[in-house]
Amino acid sequence: MKLTAESPAEKSANRTDVLLIGGGIMSATLGAFLKQLAPDWDISLYERMDRAGTESSDPWNNAGTGHAALCELNYSPAGPDGTVDPAKAIGINEQFQVSRQFWSHLVDQGHISGGFINPLPHMSFVWGDAHSDYLRKRYESLSAQPLFKTMEFSEDHGKIAEWAPLLMQGRDSGQRVAASRVAGGTDVDFGALTRELVNYLGANGAELNFGHEVTNLTRNSGGGWDVTVRNRATKASRTVSARFVFIGGGGGALHLLQRSGIPEGKGFGGFPVSGQFLRSTDESIISAHNAKVYGQASVGAPPMSVPHLDTRFVDGKKSLLFGPYGGFSPKFLKNGALTDLPFSVRPHNLVPMLAVAKDNMSLVKYLVTEVLKSREGKTKALREFYPEAATEGWDLITAGQRVQVIKKDPKSGGVLQFGTELITSADGTVGALLGASPGASTAPPIMINLMKRCFPAEFAGWEAKIKEMIPGYGVKLNENESLADEITAETNRVLKLG
């Protein structure tokens, strides 16, 4: 789509060049890119809540992991022969390097502050012979790659206790355990980052509309979109004409994608998964742990339910969480409606959704088991990581909703996809993002892909600026070790990661 800025005479309160639906990390990231690349374009953002970053981007609604595949075992599963292919982990790490560079650029230019990201070791921790053997093979596979060259591995109880004391206190000295560690991991407060980005947009001319819910979008005669927006306080609705629309409303994106009627959105459905965390209230326990420690998912559990004992930094304060415990709610947003799931069923996605229901009974069983798990049962799961954990001293908090993507499959009829799915119209006038992890961590590369697909006429002229913002753009850093080291050192300096 060729998009040029309107003249002052053409502009009005109900017209905009770019309309962003949702005030989360994805809309904020796309807006920040466009402010850098096309500063003369009008941008309007509509968010149903009273501030940005309150749904999946909120720090209490996600794990805050800077997803670089350093500790997340589901990104590097063992193959049928027991070997571990590093390709997917490398790809995710490459994407996170792009994110780090973009954030570093914005901090360096004074557009945002760097307090949203903190250095924090990433660890994987398992027990038992089979899991320990797997983790060793994973370490051998990944540590041979330049992006993972600082990874350490140990089965020694004493060494693991140095890395994360809580894991080993009270543990049977005869139990076989294994851990890998990358000291250079990060914790990211995506809520704080989102609000920094949105504040940057507002300070540079973007129109920010909180408490406004987009209820519909339809094609207009000019080739763009008429977007219906409702003020949640006054209940009044108005129509805004936009030449490009990004549907970035998290779990709420599916309904709006369906209302757009674009053929590229046909066949998609959503499977909502909720969750809970245990959050420590004991400062002595919180101070004794300083890492993100990921384990193996339970049989039938979705990848986003991988258990982890996590240090978090929220608004600069250190905290400690364990979870998540899976659950089910038909809501597509934490602040959504119980009718979200049933109202998403359409003739074009019914077969994929039924196929997924049939083929994922283990997931359903897992979720039912998790929902019925008692508080003592939740503490028992915690004690597998932290043997001396007490039942008291932990608050149970509800995490955000995750809507996993259901899509057509020629063989099975439908598949449940864990990850993100970028959908764009053929004419490039609308884009939408569905799915979950590692989404927030990889928002910048995802949005670069969206811009490439939706603004092909402009993108060629933007690449020099993108390269300026992201020095490693277009380069596989895992194949260019010296450049990777140089970029890591610079982003560490700017982001104050040590």
Automatic annotation (TrEMBL):
GO biological process, one term: tricarboxylic acid cycle
Name of the featured protein: Probable malate:quinone oxidoreductase
Source species: Arthrobacter caoxuetaonis
Keywords recorded for this protein, A-Z: FAD, Flavoprotein, Oxidoreductase, Tricarboxylic acid cycle
Pathways involved: Carbohydrate metabolism; tricarboxylic acid cycle; oxaloacetate from (S)-malate (quinone route): step 1/1
Catalytic activities: (S)-malate + a quinone = a quinol + oxaloacetate
InterPro entries tied to this protein: FAD/NAD-bd_sf, MQO
SUPFAM superfamilies per record: FAD/NAD(P)-binding domain
Cofactor (UniProt): FAD
Gene (UniProt): mqo
Molecular function terms, GO-annotated: (S)-2-hydroxyglutarate dehydrogenase activity; L-malate dehydrogenase (quinone) activity
EC identifiers of the protein: 1.1.5.4
Superkingdom classification of source: Bacteria
Coiled coil, from the record: none
Family in the record: Belongs to the MQO family.
Keyword Transferase listed: no
HAMAP family linked: MQO (MF_00212)
